[in-house]
Amino acid sequence: MSRVIRFIQLVLLNFAGVRSVTVDYTDLLTALTGKNGEGKSTIGGAPSWIFYGTDLFGGKYNPTPTTYEFDRVYASLLFTVDGTQYLLARGIEGGDNKFWINDVPAKAKEYETFVAGLFDRKMFLSLYNPAFFFSQHWTDQRAMLMQHMSAPLQKTVLAEMSRTSPEQKPADIVLNPYAAALTESLKKHSIDDLQKIHGGTGGQKSKLEKQHIADKSRTQTLRDQLAKMPVPEFTKEVAEAEVVGIDSILQNLATQRTIAVKIDTERRELERQKAAADADYAARVTGWKALEAEEVADSCKTCERPFDEESRTAAAADKERRMKEYMAGNKPVVERRKELLAKLADFEIVSIADIDEQIAEHQEQRRRMVAITEDGERRAALAKQIDEAAAKEAATLASLKESTLILDAIKAYKAKEAELQAADVQALFTRLSVRLFKYVASRDEYDPDFSIQMDGKDYIALSTGERIAAGLELTDVLYKLSDLIPPTFIDGIGEYTGDIAVYGQSITARAVKGKALGINETEVDVLGNNIEN
């Protein structure tokens, strides 16, 4: 529902050179005419000072006269807002600012709050004086238009992102990868939050790029380590099988060695016994030879008396007896020696050294197979680390691609949203063209921007009449967006040749050579005396 502001009466006293004037506004057009310096612009700008203490462009303004003495500056405006009447007045007395609300004195803050509650300041100034809108920074101009424009629905933007032809019906549109990716993400986060999550130096994409470089380096380092490891003669499985076979052989060799050691011990014992028997036999031979060489004595060893025949016979018989007894004693020694020789002849000679050599060879072979097995285990462990690192690298890359896809999708979304918003805003204008965004090639992104042109020319390059035409078209759009209908002041109307089409009251100022100030064809002087035509 529109809010209508109607001006009823303006009273100025000692206001910027206007000593005294009363303006009774008409319902449609209040025309101010006169030569330059008669106060037309001053009258037109007075409501801005009454409401906000500024000039028509929102700048600080001091209407104190500088060419004559005065007691006070005073300006009041009687007006209605949606039929409710208000009287606001502002003055300067003794250098102090004074304020009145419906003839009741008010403090500055109270007055300011009251005015702010009536209508929006920038919207009023833009509609009252369209040139004010164009004097603002482009961000403020853009914000004024956009704050009253509804952003396109997400589903509309996503669908338009995926449109393949202008004729395609919404029901036939299939979401492209960008739109599909955003559809899921937008269920949890807003488009701006997604930009913060994934974009910027601290965003997920930047972190994933660094992480992917680190993961890739880790994988390559492990692969280089594996490449530098010697290639084994056998596989780990073959080497393990070889170890099992070698262990079986070593076990058999150990058994053989145990048997060989036992045999060798027994043989050595027989050789020891044979050596003892040989020594005993040699001693017997020596004793036999000594006995055999012994001569029969023919005299007594003690008394040296010669033996008689009987004694000689007895001595010979004694030697014979002793030889028989010695011979009888040789027999067991000879038989024992023969027995030992026979046993030794039956023993199989087994070389423990050969067995030990075989054991050493197989142990060395086993150590080599174990080393191959351990190398295989190390290679297998390194291969596992490579697989894990490669998997992590792939996962990081997948996340990076997803984050990149989201950011690219956001760019596409914002570009399409900007396009739709620009189209919606542009549809409000006839001769004016509006740019809401600019493309930044270095970032492949659209940044908020704002510029208005008429017939291909920037506002600053327009003539006075063209600026008025642009301002009137702008007010028409602002009326529709804000539903606020205040009076519109058009200064320099003589430069404009088009129609004046506004929703509310019109106040125009036209310079007329040689004429005093006129209000709706009634001339007045700065002292407030009416002068009939």
Structure write-up:
The chain is an alpha+beta fold and 533 residues long. Among the domains are: 3-149 and 452-531, Rossmann fold (3-Layer(aba) Sandwich); 242-367. The protein has 13 helices and 16 strands. It is rod-shaped and about 210 Å long.
**Sheet with the most strands, sense and barrel status:** 7 strands, mixed
Quaternary structure = single chain
SSE arrangement, N to C = EEEHEEEEHHHHHHHHHHHEEEHEEEEEE
Task: Specify Rg, calculated over alpha carbons.
Answer: 63 Å
- The helix count comes to 13
How does CATH name the architecture of the domain at 3-149 and 452-531? Answer: 3-Layer(aba) Sandwich
Choose one word for the global shape.
rod-shaped
Distance between the termini: 42 Å
- Looking at CATH, the homologous superfamily of the domain at 3-149 and 452-531 is P-loop containing nucleotide triphosphate hydrolases
Which CATH class of the domain at 3-149 and 452-531 applies here?
Alpha Beta
The overall strand count is: 16
Give the fraction of residues assigned to helices.
40-55%
Strand content: 15-25%
The averaged pLDDT comes out at: 87
Q: What attributes characterize this protein structure?
A:
seven-stranded mixed β-sheet; Rossmann fold; alpha+beta; six-stranded mixed β-sheet; 533 residues; 13 helices
Question: Topology, pairings included?
Answer:
Elements: E1 3-15, E2 18-24, E3 29-34, H1 40-52, E4 72-81, E5 84-93, E6 96-101, E7 104-105, H2 108-116, H3 121-128, H4 130-135, H5 138-146, H6 154-162, H7 177-185, H8 191-198, H9 204-228, H10 236-293, H11 309-346, H12 352-426, E8 432-440, E9 445-454, E10 457-458, H13 464-482, E11 484-485, E12 488-491, E13 506-511, E14 518-519, E15 522-524, E16 530-531
Parallel strand pairs: 1-11, 3-13, 12-13
Antiparallel strand pairs: 1-2, 1-4, 3-14, 4-5, 5-6, 6-7, 8-9, 9-10, 14-15, 15-16
